[in-house]
Design brief:
By secondary structure, the chain is α/β, with parallel strands linked by helices. It has a domain of about 220 residues: paralog of FGE (formylglycine-generating enzyme), CATH 3.90.1580. The chain contains 15 helices and 33 strands. The protein has an 8-stranded parallel beta barrel with strand order 2-5-6-7-8-9-11-12. Strands 23, 28, 29, 30, 31 and 32 form a 6-stranded mixed sheet that branches. A hairpin with a 4-residue loop joins strand 19 and strand 20. The longest helix has 16 residues. The protein is elongated, with a radius of gyration of 28 Å.
C-alpha cells in the first residue's frame, strides 16, 4: 500500500473486500490518541502558504503587514482561511551567511512586528504555522541546535505549529522540545507522516500521488481520522483532481498560488468549487473526523462515485463525477424524511426513500439526510450559480519593469568608467532553473509531480537588443566612495541592515545596499544603474576588472508581477554554499550567468554579497557636415 494514497479497484464488486483490507490494516497499525488541544485541526480544511514578501501582504514602504486586506481578498475568493503557513527565507537563503532565523528576526518590525501580524491573523480566525528549513545547515550557526531556536521562536511569536519543509516527520528531540516549550503545538510534515508518528504529527501534506479511476483513500486519513491531510499540487493549472481527492477523503487543501516567487494562480472555477466544498466540510466536520466512513459505498451512475459518512443517525453522502460531461438525475437512497444538497444549496424531494441530484462535469455532489438551515443553503446556492460563469483558465501574470532612471548623459566616459559602443547586441544568458523562475514565473504546465521539471539544471536564453553608447564603472563601487556619498548628502535609511558596519575595508566593494540605496548613489553622480545587457556586454568585452572581494552586482530593471518584486544580479561572489541544492547561487561566474534575487524590504534586501556599479549614457557627438 502507498504511504500516501491507497488506490481503489475499478470494479464495484471488488470494493467490499478492499474495504475489509483497509479495516484490517488500520487495526494492525493501532490508533493515535486524540489530544483536546488539537481539536481545531479537525476543522482546518483550507490552508494557505503566504510568502512574506508578497506585495499584497506587505507594504514595503511602511513595513506594515496588510493582514486585513489580504485575508478579506482571500476569503472572498476561497472561503474561510483556517490556517496559514508563513514562508520567509528560501529562495534567497544562501546568497550570504544569514540563516533562516536571521530572516525571521529581520522582518519588518522584527519579532515584535511578526507577533503583531500573527495576532491579527488569530483575530481573523486563522491558525499560524512557521516554516522550518531543516536543510539549512551551512549558513551562520546559532551556537545551539535548531530545536532550541525553534522552541523559542514559536513561543515568542505565539505560533500554533511548525511546517516541516522536505520532512516526513520531525526528529524526536525536536518534537519534544517544541511540545515542552508550547504544549499542544501542531507539526505538519511535507511528506506523508509514518504511521508510528501520527500521534505527534497532527497534519501532513498529500503532494505526490496517483489516484485510481475509482477514488482512492489517503492512507493516514484511514489510520487516524483526527490527522488532517492537506492535498496540494503546486504546479498544476487544473486543481480538479486535488479537490476531488480531498472531497472524497474529508480532507483539506493547500491554496498555494505564489510558489516561491513564481505565480500559478488558481482558476476561478476551482476557487468557487473549493469554497463550496470547504463550507460543507467545515459545517459537518464531526462526520469526517468521528463518523463511520464507508469509502466507495456505491456507484450510482457510470463514472460517478459515492462515499458515505454517518454520525448520530445522520448520513452524509459525498460524490464525484469523473466524466467530462454533466450527469443529471443521480439517484441515492436516504433513510430520513428530509434531505438537502448542501453544495448546490437546495432542498431535495424524497420519493420512495430516494433523492435525485445533478453533478456538473468533473464536479462534486453531496446529500445530507437532515434539515439544514435556510441561511446556509441560500449562501451555497448563490455561490453554486457562479460555477457556470467562472472561466476555466488559470490566472497568469506577466512581470512589469520599473521605469529606468534618466540621466543627462556625458560626452565622454568619466574617470573610473569605460566606454561601450552601442548597436545590436545578441545576449546569451545562462541561469540555473529554480522554483522562483527567472524573468517570468516557472511554469510546469500540467505536471503532477511536486518537483519542477528540469529543477537545478542550466538553461540558456538568447535576446536581441539595441544598446545606445554608455559608460560603466570598471570596478564595483567601494566602501570609501559610498561612505563619501553618505557623509556629503546625509543619506541615512531608517531600516536595519545598512552597509555601515565595522570591518569592511575602504577599497572593498560596498555591500548591504539595496537597489534603492544604489540608485540614490548613482543619482547623486548624475548616473544610473546598468541594465543586465549593459553589464554583460561590458564584461564580455573584458572591460570589467575583478574586485578585491568578488560580489554580485545589482542590475536594472527591477521587475514585479504585482505579487513578487525582483532584480537580476550578475557576476557571482566569493560566497558559495554547496551543502544543499536549495541554497541560492553562489561562487564566481562568467558574464553570461545570471541569478534572480527576490526583493522584500530594505532590511532583508541588503545582502552581504551584493554590490553595484553605475552607468551613464554617452552623448553621440553631432555629425560633421
Amino acid at each position: 500500500m502507498s504511504r500516501c494514497l491507497i488506490a481503489a479497484p475499478d470494479e464495484p464488486g471488488d470494493w467490499p473486500a478492499w474495504r475489509d483490507g483497509l479495516k484490517a490494516w488500520r487495526q494492525s497499525c493501532g490508533l493515535a490518541g486524540a489530544n483536546p488541544a488539537h481539536d481545531w485541526v479537525g476543522r482546518c480544511f483550507t490552508a494557505h502558504k503566504i510568502l512574506l514578501w508578497d506585495e499584497r501582504f506587505l507594504d514595503r514602504e511602511s513595513g506594515r503587514w496588510l493582514v486585513e486586506d489580504y485575508v478579506d481578498a482571500f476569503e472572498a475568493r476561497f472561503g474561510s482561511l483556517d490556517c496559514v503557513i508563513l514562508w520567509h527565507a528560501y529562495p534567497n537563503l544562501g546568497f550570504d551567511q544569514r540563516n533562516q532565523f536571521d530572516f525571521w528576526r529581520n522582518m519588518p518590525g522584527g519579532l515584535e512586528g511578526l507577533t503583531g501580524m500573527i495576532t491579527c491573523l488569530h483575530a481573523r480566525g486563522s491558525r499560524v504555522l512557521l516554516a522550518y528549513n531543516p536543510w539549512d545547515v551551512a549558513t551562520r550557526r546559532e551556537g545551539r541546535d535548531d530545536a532550541a531556536c525553534l522552541a523559542d521562536l514559536v513561543t515568542e511569536l505565539d505560533a500554533d505549529g511548525l511546517y516541516l519543509d522536505t520532512l516526513s516527520s520531525a526528529g524526536r528531540d525536536l518534537a519534544a522540545a517544541l511540545e515542552d516549550a508550547r504544549p499542544g503545538i501542531v507539526l505538519q510534515s511535507q511528506a506523508p507522516v509514518p504511521p508510528e508518528r501520527l500521534a505527534d504529527h497532527r497534519m501532513g501534506w498529500a503532494e505526490s500521488w496517483d489516484d485510481s479511476w475509482a477514488p482512492g483513500v489517503l492512507a493516514n486519513r484511514i489510520l487516524d481520522r483526527h490527522h488532517m491531510i492537506h492535498v496540494v499540487r503546486r504546479w498544476m493549472a487544473d486543481h480538479t483532481p486535488e479537490i476531488q481527492l480531498a472531497w472524497m477523503n474529508g480532507a483539506g487543501m493547500v491554496v498555494w498560488e505564489n510558489i516561491f516567487g513564481s505565480w500559478n494562480g488558481w482558476r476561478d472555477r476551482d476557487a468557487v468549487q473549493w469554497k463550496l466544498a470547504s463550507r460543507v466540510l467545515r459545517r459537518w466536520s464531526r462526520h469526517f473526523t468521528e463518523g463511520v466512513w464507508t469509502p466507495l459505498a456505491r456507484m450510482p451512475a457510470p463514472g460517478v462515485f459515492a462515499s458515505s459518512w454517518e454520525l448520530d443517525g445522520v448520513r452524509l453522502w459525498t460524490l464525484v463525477n469523473r466524466n467530462r460531461k454533466p450527469v443529471p438525475g443521480i439517484r441515492l437512497p436516504v433513510d430520513a424524511p428530509t434531505a438537502c444538497e448542501p453544495l448546490a444549496g437546495r432542498q431535495l424531494a424524497v420519493n420512495d426513500n430516494r433523492v435525485a441530484i445533478d453533478i456538473p462535469a468533473v464536479g462534486l455532489g453531496a446529500v445530507i439526510e437532515e434539515t439544514v438551515e435556510s441561511d446556509f443553503l441560500e449562501g451555497q446556492a448563490q455561490r453554486y450559480r457562479q460555477l457556470d460563469h467562472s472561466p476555466h483558465g488559470p490566472s497568469c501574470l506577466v512581470p512589469r519593469a520599473r521605469a529606468l532612471a534618466k540621466n543627462p548623459g556625458s560626452a565622454k566616459a568619466p574617470n573610473g568608467m569605460v566606454r561601450v559602443t552601442g548597436g545590436v547586441y545578441v545576449r546569451r544568458t545562462r541561469f540555473r532553473v529554480r522554483e522562483c523562475g527567472m524573468y517570468e514565473s516557472a511554469r510546469a504546465g500540467e505536471s503532477a509531480d511536486l518537483v519542477l521539471p528540469g529543477l537545478h539544471s542550466m538553461v540558456s536564453l538568447e535576446f536581441r537588443e539595441e544598446l545606445s553608447p554608455y559608460a560603466i564603472d570598471r570596478h564595483s563601487v567601494t566602501v570609501a566612495a559610498f561612505r563619501r556619498f553618505v557623509e556629503e548628502t546625509g543619506y541615512s535609511p531608517d531600516t536595519p541592515g545598512f552597509f555601515l558596519e565595522p570591518g569592511a575595508g575602504p577599497r572593498e566593494p560596498v555591500t548591504r545596499v539595496d537597489p534603492d540605496d544604489a540608485r540614490a548613489y548613482a543619482s547623486w553622480l548624475g548616473r544610473r544603474l546598468p541594465t543586465e545587457a549593459e553589464w554583460q556586454r561590458a564584461a564580455e568585452d573584458g572591460l570589467l576588472d575583478d574586485d578585491p572581494v568578488h560580489v554580485w552586482n545589482w542590475t536594472e530593471p527591477e521587475m514585479s508581477d504585482g505579487r513578487t518584486r525582483f532584480c537580476i544580479v550578475k557576476g557571482g561572489s566569493h560566497h558559495h554554499l554547496t551543502a544543499s541544492d536549495w541554497y541560492a547561487d553562489g561562487g564566481a561566474h562568467d558574464a553570461a550567468f545570471a541569478a534572480k534575487y527576490l526583493l522584500m524590504w530594505p532590511g532583508l534586501d541588503r545582502c552581504a554579497t551584493i554590490g553595484f556599479r553605475t552607468a551613464i549614457d554617452l552623448r553621440v557627438p553631432p555629425q560633421a557636415t
